[in-house]
Amino acid sequence: MTIIAIAIFVITLVLVIWQPRGLGIGWSALGGAGLALITTVVSLGDIPTVWDIVGNATFAFVGIVLISLILDESGLFEWAALHVTRWGCGNGRLLFVMVILLGAVISALFANDGAALILTPIVIQILIALKFSARASLGFVLACGFVADAGSLPLVISNLVNIVSADYFGIDFARYAIVMVPVGIVTVAASLGVLYLAFRRSIPRRYDPAAAPDPRSAIHDPLTFTAGFWVLGVLLIGYFVADPLHIPLSVITAVGALALILIAARRPAFLFTRATPLGSNGDATVRAVSEDSSATVGLRRISVRRVVREAPWQIVLFSIGMYLVVYGLRNQGLTDRLAGVFAGIGQNGVLVTALGVGVIVAVLASIMNNLPTVLIAALAIGAAGATGLTHEAMIYANVIGSDLGPKITPIGSLATLLWLHVLDRRGIHIGWGRYFRTGILLTVPVLLISLSALAGWLLIIG
Questions:
Q1: pLDDT score for 118
Q2: CA-to-CA separations, 265 to 69, 71, 120, 223, in angstroms, rounded
Q3: Average pLDDT over every residue of 172-184
Q4: Region 122-135: what's the mean pLDDT?
Q5: pLDDT for 271
Q6: Alpha-carbon gap, residue 83 to 106, rounded angstroms
Q7: pLDDT digits (tens, 9 = 90+) for 424-452
Q8: Are 108 and 184 in contact (CB under 8 A)?
Q9: pLDDT at position 270
Q10: What is its main location (predicted)?
Q11: Local structure of residue 411 (DSSP, 8 states)
Q12: Can you tell me whether residue 67 is helix, strand or coil?
C-alpha cells in the first residue's frame, strides 16, 4: 500500500505540472484524489479532516488574489512601478534596488503569485520604454521573480504556504508577524545583496526617467484605485483582530474582495471629478467624467466579470485533491519517517534545527512542489514530539524552506511555471537549465541567511 500511495502522489504531481489537454491543476489533483480513494489509500472520512486543514487557507488565498486583480485593473501596481521609475532619479542601479523593494512590498501585502505575475509584465513594459537592453532587462525580470517568493515571508497572507502552516499549528496573525517580519526583512536584504552581486554588471548606470509615462496615466479607475488604499488599511486591522474574535482569515479577505468588486462594478463606471492641467501656466480645470466620456481621458471600465472568472478557482479543487493525496502518504506512515528525522535534528539546538529542517524542506519543495511539501512537513513536525523553541523553529523553518526552496527549480511552484510561460509569450525565454543554475546561485545563500536569522530571533524573543 505504501508503494501505491507514493505512485499516486508522483502521478498526481506530474499531471498537475504537465496539465495535459488543459486539464488544469484542480482537475489533475482531483484525479489523484479519486485514485487514492479507489485504492483505499485514503477514506471518505479523511475528506473533512483535510478540508479542515486547508479550506480556510484556500479561500483566504482566493480572496487575496481577487483583491490583487481588481487593484491591478484599476492601475495601482503600474502607478507604483512608474513612481519607482521616477524615484530612481536616472540611476540604473538605484532603480534595480527600488524595483526589488517594490516587489517585496507587493509580495508581502498581495501574496507572492500577485507580485510575480502582475509586477513582471509591468516592469517589462517600463524597461522597453526606457530602452534597456535585453541583457539588462533579464536581470530585472529574474529579480522580480525571485523577490516575489523571498518577500513572501513576513505576513500570514503573503503566501498560501504561510496560511496553511499557520492554520495547521494554530498560529495567530500577530504572533506570526512578530516572528517573521524581522526575518522577512533580513531575507529581503539578503536577496537584494545577492541579486545585486549577480546582475550588477548588466544594469545600465544611467537612464532617462522622462522616457517612462506619467504615473497618473496608469490610473484607469480612480475611485477603485483610491478605495484600494482604504480597503488594504481595513484588511490589515482585520487580520490582527480576526483571531481574538475567532473569525476565519478567509472571511476577512472575502469582505475586502467583495467591497472592491462592488466599487469596481458600480454604474456609471466613472462617476468622479478629475483635475486636468492645461497649458504651461499651471491652471487647471475640473472635468466631470462619466462612462460615456471615459475614452477621452484614457479611462476604462473594469470588467468585474472577467476578473472574477480569472480568479484562481482551480486552487480550491487543487487543495482538496492534492492534500488528500498527501494525507494518503501520512496514512501509510511516510510522514512518520520524516518526523523521526526532524526529531533527531531537534536534539541539537535551535540553530541546527532551523537549518536542518529548513534545508530538507527546501530540497523537497524544489523537487515535488512547495504546496504538498508544506503539509507533508507540517504533518511530520506535528508527529516529531518537539516542544518550546525547537518546535517553533521547525514550524517557521518549514515556512521558509517552502517559500524559498521552490526558486531552485522551475517545478518548485506552480507560480514559477506560469511566470516562465508569461515571459516566453513576451519573447523572453529562460531555459530550465539556465533557470536551475541561477536558482541555486540565488537561493542557497539567502535560504541559509534566513534560517540563521530565524534561529537568532527566536532565541531573542523566547
A1: 85
A2: 14, 13, 26, 11
A3: 96
A4: 88
A5: 54
A6: 14
A7: 877 787 887 888 888 899 999 999 999 99
A8: yes
A9: 56
A10: membrane
A11: G
A12: helix
Tell me the CA distances in angstroms from 107 to 12, 65, 102, 344, one per residue in order.
Answer: 28, 11, 8, 34
What cell numbers appear for 435 in the block? 533557470
Give the other-Cβ count within 10 Å of 134's Cβ. 11
Residue 347 — pLDDT band, cuts 50, 70, 90? very high
CA distance 424 to 374: 29
CA distances from 452 to 95, 193, 397, 408, 455 (A): 29, 16, 10, 19, 5
SS3 272: strand
Contacts of 21 (CB under 8 A, 6+ apart): none
Spatial separation of the C-alpha atoms in residues 77 and 99, rounded to whole Å: 12
Listed in sequence order, the residues at least 6 apart from 177 whose beta carbon sits closer than 8 Å to its beta carbon are 154, 155, 156
Of 233, 176, 164, 149, the closest CA to residue 419 belongs to 149
Residue whose C-alpha cell is 472571511:
251
Distance (Å, whole) CA 255 – CA 231: 9
As a whole number of Å, the CA-based R_g of the chain is 23
- Report the C-alpha gap between 263 and 221 in whole angstroms: 10
Q: What is the pTM of this model?
A: 0.89
Question: CA-CA distance, 395 to 391, in Å (whole number)?
Answer: 6
Which of these ranges, 46-50, 63-67, 112-116, 397-401, has the smallest mean pLDDT? 112-116
Mean pLDDT of 279-299: 41
* The residue type at 282: G
Helices (H) and strands (E) in the chain, counts: 18, 2
* DSSP class of 214: P
Alpha helices in 346-427 (DSSP H): 350-368, 370-384, 388-404, 414-425
Query: Hey, what's the torsion of the CAs at 28, 29, 30, 31, to 10 degrees?
Result: 50
Residue 65: is its pLDDT beyond 50?
A: yes
Rounded Cα distance, 307 and 257, in Å: 11
Sequence ranges of the domains in the chain? 266-301
Q: How far is Cα of residue 33 from the mean position of the Cα atoms in its chain?
A: 25
Rounded to the nearest integer, the mean pLDDT of the chain is: 87
Residue carrying C-alpha cell 499651471? 282
Say how far apart CA 459 and CA 462 lie, in whole Å.
5
CA-based end-to-end distance of the chain: 43
Show the cell assigned to 6: 507514493
